[in-house]
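Help!! Second protein's tokens look totally different from the first
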Amino acid sequence: MNLPDQTILIQKLLDGSIETDELHQLEQIFRAHPEAIDAYIDMSEIHSFLGSKEAESAQYGTVVPMERIVRRQKRRQLKVAALAAAAIVLISLLSLQLFWFQSKSSDLAFSTSPQSRFTISNTNQKQRSDKTLSPGSTLTLSQGSLELTFATGVTSILVAPAEITLVSENTLKMPEGRAWFNVPKQAIGFKVITSELEITDLGTQFGVLADPKNHDEIHVFKGSVIAKATRGNQSESTLYQLDSRRASARGDLNIISTQPDAFLTALPNSLPNITWTFDEKKPFQASGSHPAAATIKTKATGKPTLTSGRFGQALLLNGKGQSLETNWKSFQGLRPRTISAWVYMDSTDDHSDNSAIVAWGDHSTPTGKWTLQVSQMSPESDRKLRVSMGNTWATTKANVPTDRWVHLAATTNGSIDTNGALHLELYIDGINQEYSRKGSFAPQKGTTVTTLKAAPVTIGSSIHSRRALRKFLKSKLDEVSIYDGHMSPEEIKDLAQP
């Protein structure tokens, strides 16, 4: 609550100069902050006293009869009681107004970015369309992002994986998700509830990260919020611009750095992605629409160089210890994903050593790694596109062309078939390829990124935990991208356009 704003609004009300929108704002303050009613009563009493004092001075000069003072004190006591009653009536009317408004329009509208996937479950039978949520509805976002528009004017950008339940026009439950919120003045008191935090907005912009595998976070970008831990100590604090907290297992609010770039503030025009274009001022660094892009650091090892690429510059790797290593663990488990890259390989080069274009995860656990590579059985055999997951892999029947730029891609929706095999689609130059599988398919638990041996995203080499045992790629690479979600054949074909 901004005290100067509150004082100005109350003064305007007492002076009779308050505008309609200002009156609504003051009503919101009274509803969210009961202590504001006391300030209203105090200011009303002072306003009344000064008005009567001015009138008496004009009539009697500096002498005020005692009986008049006694009568004025009695009137003041009655007026205070009346003002308190008026405040109660005001709040009651406001509650009725809000109840009426909810009954009229409390749905949450949303729009989606391309390739987004979501489902809606609804305990309220008043759901009207697949692009609105009525109170009681739960939306699960498996990939992509959404823009949410609340009836009160609150807007939000939500990134998968996420789950939200609309409790009311003023309250949202979010046990999982990464969301940015913009709350206008008329929606003061808007709440976001995660598994570990209850966040009450005071008119601001903020971000919330709710992760079932980690502790939840609140990041304040403008204005202020009240953050309360819902477990253990139930610590509570008012946070202001650039204040951020992470809930702890004990129910405390630990200070963390604010990361505005970790949240989307507008819908992207594709799936959230991380891309190495090799064309920026820092050519080895990542960019893209995924919230993680701003925090990824890429280190070039072995002094790789740049050369003319498919688009602008490309990464040139000599197969002798050159690679790019990042601090990003990337997607774990069976989370849907798409990996694509433009690749140029000379026909004379040997790729029988299982080096990788892109790789991450734990190579030592069954199905624990994810590797996109071009593989040869021997230096004399044909090159094939392969996805290796550790003890299981899929290899195209078609060959990967050499001595020219070729677009390679792999995508999965994260589903497992009746044989225990992970759904996969492999593409060469935008064409969906037949492939064969080898290895053990069950149990398929997906990529492992949390163990000590798990490697973050690496470009141009295998990910053996002992660096001396890694194999390095000899190739040119351009537009290496990791997309947060599964893509259709049409979407992959668009990526492969020259």
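Here's the second one for comparison:
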Amino acid sequence: MASPAQQGDDSDDDMDGFMERFKKEKYSNAFSEDNWEEEFNTVPMFMKTAPEDIDPMKHPELAAIQSIIHDDDRPLEEQAKSLKDEGNDYFKDKKYKKAIVSYTAGLKKNCSDSNVNAILYTNRAAAHFHLGNMRSALNDAVIAKKLKPDHIKAFIRGASCCIELKKYADAFQWSEEGLKLQPTDKKLLELRATADRHKRAAERDARKAKVKEKKQRSEREALLKSIEERGIKLLIPRQGPKRSSDVEDDGDGGSSKAMSGLDLDGLCSAEATGAKVFLDEQGVIHWPVLFLYPEHQQTDFISAFSETSSFMDHFCLMFGAELPPWDTNRQYSPHNLQLFFEDQQKESLYEVNPDTSLLKSLQHKRYFVKAGTPSFVILVKGSPFCEKFLSERKTHRLK
């Protein structure tokens, strides 16, 4: 067995031999001008960005550092702080989803330091905020405030989230509570001013909407009352099973859903046409009216047909000066037309005198206004199509 002195001599010989070889042989793994930046980026101390997934075989140094950060043998407070710092690094790089994962992992450590936990919640709230998860962010801010009632960032997060959620009164309250703790905080002052401005605007808009709704309700009630007083019947879409109380009998075996009280379901034409029945300041009702031309499969729509006007008044405007382009035979002149309304339940037509008013035709016992839009069929008097069309249907003349 060699003595210590001999072992020392052997070591010196080995080192001397290594140095001699080092002088003669070129180091194969040395940095070069071409690869030095790439090589430096493999050293943890000089890395600009860490790899997404750390493979212990490829990056043993990083794996060792990561194991230190997540060392379960360390106190929970230290583990939570390390995960907080990790989340902060992700946050600075705008990797908010990864930041949330780190903050959540830190909270799962359940450390006893309420200050650390409050910061984890407020930081996670900030990450949620940047991702647009406002409700999650607000929930985290609420918990952070409970853990640390004087944590100003919790109030800032809470107020910011409430503004984004359009909860302006809540945002104002968050700001006020925070300013009681720190009256000169610039961010809280800005948030309070913003919340107050939006809150006042929302309250003003709500008052205007309430006044407008009240006015519209009053106008609708007056309109329906006028319709009822005139004896005009609205065909209301039936919902659910048919009940005996839903129909009224006219004595001739016909029936239809009756207009009940101030029900608006029978006045829904605005949804399809953009026009609706209205009552003017003189108490005259104006209806949207649809004319059908079955021979040519065409239609005309009058958005505001006064109940006091006659059909002939409109015929003269529609067909007096210029005939429609689809009337190639030039037959649709005002005095060469027949007007009908259809009774769908009885599958019959009722002829209307064009010189009568719209109101008189709507008051007929077999006329039911469908979807708030009266409709009428127009035919050319004596034409082959007219004779065939009428021969296939039961026809009545208005008395």
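Reply: Different proteins will give different token patterns, so don't panic. The radius of gyration is 42 Å.
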